[in-house]
């Protein structure tokens, strides 16, 4: 019921709308009724549109770099709204964003994706399942979740978007990822990622939480970059343009993309040590 109470107060274009609830009796949990998003979760949409597969869903145009920028703006807008409500999401990831008609993206979860994406979650010290690949160092180390940890997760979401849905730290187990995060090893921006987006990622991944960029500033930067692209004629609405073809990767047995045979830490870089 608490989740229903919280979600019923949200009203934003980029937040999944709760339409109602069904309660059979007082002993059962309520069934929540949400608006329908025909293209499903963003992670699946990105992977289907990756240069390797190019399997756009029926009725959806192929994603371009400009489309990825528009997706990022919408997620930033939704998170800016949530942060203004002082709401901490705790599980921001592409799997928890849904895609509707005209490439409208809405932030969802709120605990609904764990059953189908169990490989993205990991138990630390016998605790509940946690999305470690999207977690900040202080979340991994202390179990602390704040608006600043959501900002860290947003940086990982940008990485997902511009890598066409690759799993963060692909090629590493969840246990290895925990160690990497605690060692201060972070992701490098994907190839061909716009410089403004690369810088936002870095500003999301500052070691000290108070030094991280705020969601309104993220949204402002992305919208200013969009305005420049529109002025240059490279970002029409709806966004269109050629997709940059990249060397295809291979899949592991679980269906996740594995890195091409290059150096082990090509996509990782070190952060300064986390202060106590």
From TrEMBL:
Entry GO terms, CC: axon; plasma membrane; receptor complex
Amino acids binding Mg(2+): 96, 109
Positions annotated as active site in the UniProt record: 91 (proton acceptor)
GO biological process: cell surface receptor protein tyrosine kinase signaling pathway; cellular response to nerve growth factor stimulus; positive regulation of neuron projection development; positive regulation of phosphatidylinositol 3-kinase/protein kinase B signal transduction
Chain positions recorded as ATP binding sites: 95
SMART domains: TyrKc
GO MF, any single term: transmembrane receptor protein tyrosine kinase activity
InterPro entries referenced in this protein's UniProt entry, alphabetically: Kinase-like_dom_sf, Prot_kinase_dom, RTK, Ser-Thr/Tyr_kinase_cat_dom, Tyr_kinase_AS, Tyr_kinase_cat_dom
PROSITE patterns in alphabetical order: PROTEIN_KINASE_DOM (PS50011), PROTEIN_KINASE_TYR (PS00109)
Swiss-Prot/TrEMBL keywords: ATP-binding, Magnesium, Metal-binding, Nucleotide-binding, Receptor
UniProt domain Protein kinase: residue ranges: 1-229
Name the UniProt record assigns to this protein: BDNF/NT-3 growth factors receptor
Domain of life: Eukaryota
């Amino acid at each position: 019921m608490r989740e229903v109470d919280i979600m019923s107060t949200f009203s934003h274009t980029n937040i999944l709308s709760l339409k109602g609830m069904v309660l059979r009796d007082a002993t059962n949990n309520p069934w929540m009724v949400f608006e329908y998003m025909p293209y499903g979760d963003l992670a699946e949409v990105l992977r289907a549109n990756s240069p390797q597969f190019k399997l756009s869903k029926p009725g959806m145009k192929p994603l371009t770099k400009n489309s990825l920028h528009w997706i990022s703006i919408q997620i930033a807008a939704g998170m800016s709204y949530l942060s203004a409500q002082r709401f901490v999401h705790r599980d921001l990831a592409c799997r928890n964003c849904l895609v509707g008609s005209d490439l409208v993206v809405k932030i969802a979860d709120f605990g609904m994706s764990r059953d189908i994406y169990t490989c993205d979650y990991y138990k630390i010290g016998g605790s509940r399942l946690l999305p470690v690949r999207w977690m900040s160092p202080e979340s991994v180390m202390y179990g602390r979740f704040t608006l600043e940890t959501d900002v860290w997760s947003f940086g990982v979401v940008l990485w997902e978007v511009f890598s066409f849905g690759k799993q963060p730290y692909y090629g590493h187990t969840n246990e290895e990822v925990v160690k990497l995060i605690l060692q201060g090893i972070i992701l490098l921006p994907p190839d061909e990622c716009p410089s403004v987006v690369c810088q936002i990622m870095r500003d999301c991944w500052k070691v000290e939480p108070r030094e991280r960029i705020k969601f309104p500033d993220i949204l402002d930067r992305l919208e200013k970059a969009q305005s420049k692209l529109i002025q240059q004629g490279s970002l029409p609405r709806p966004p269109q343009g050629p997709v940059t073809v990249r060397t295809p990767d291979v899949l592991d047995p679980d269906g996740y993309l594995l890195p091409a045979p290059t150096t082990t830490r090509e996509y990782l870089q070190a952060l300064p040590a986390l202060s106590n």
